[in-house]
User: Fold this.
Amino acid sequence: MNQHAKRRHQAGLAREAEREKPERVKTIGPPLATPEEGRLSYEITAEEAGQRLDRALAQRAETDGLALSRTRIRALIEDGMVSIDGRQASDPGAKLREGQSISLDVPAASDPEPLGEAIPLDIVFEDEHLLVIDKPAGLVVHPASGHETGTLVNALIAHCGDSLSGIGGVRRPGIVHRLDKDTSGLLVVAKTDAAHHGLSLLFADHGRTLSLTREYRAFVWGRPDRAGGTIDAPVGRHQHQREKMAVVRHDHGREAITHWRIEEGFVSGTAPVTLIACRLETGRTHQIRVHMAHIGHPLLGDSSYGAGFKTKANHLTPAARTALEHLHRQALHAGRLGFTHPVTGEELMFESPMPEDLAQLAAVLRAKT
Assistant:
């Protein structure tokens, strides 16, 4: 990591520490009692006083050897499964006081609410702990309003059965990261709780101290004025269009860093188009789409962040214009995924070739007519 990257990383850590301080404890004592299966009870020590509830519980769980990520603990708090001095807690960020009694009920992994569906999966790798899938464009990752069936989760339930990790919550079993519905490419899914816990830590680290590679290929409008660069701009909810994300002030968003480089340039008709390789240092919702639009080069086919460039299609050759019309999605593909296996320690790297719709787009962009 060069000095500039180190300074940027240190600044990000400082901002995170400022949001969540104080953190005063490095070693957590044993729980006072576990009165029945599935319940953990703790008394807050002087060293833990002032900590966030979710952070303190995550540290306790790690000390006890439990595969409970901080994200899962937040979900349990929000579901009313945590109490402080006998009263239900609802705020993961609640600051703790010495002597408080904390109870955490950990429900057994329940049967997933979504039903298994026999949806074909392009499985690139699978062992007893995890699988890597090459997701097609158009496949929603997990059930949500308007997409209750036909999702990747439905397919995973059918494929994995009882082996699918339950600690991600019944609506998203095994899911530790995701791709937008209309983004194609590589996705890793946990099959066991141990893999889920390890992968959650890996993705939370963003590959800064642990081994993680996420590279995408994107077709963007225009030609950047340099061969590559880094976009360091926080991403948060759009102020007026809440279904969209946007680059926002540091105190209104989350740190987002994208490294990019030019792979190939085209001039189709009179319209310049560029194939960009993007490497994520963080993984925020719609990050690449937001960042590339932010620097004036939105993705082809992106109706949310590139609507202002829609008329650019009129300047393409007829063949390229037709290919873009048939794309029906943003021109983005998760082509490379690498990570350390959370259980075996093996270094894994996977590559996915450009899918047929994007390969066809590239072919007609290269053609002169």
About this structure: The first strand starts at residue 39 and ends at 43. Residues 123-204 form a domain with the Pseudouridine synthase fold (CATH 3.30.2350.10).
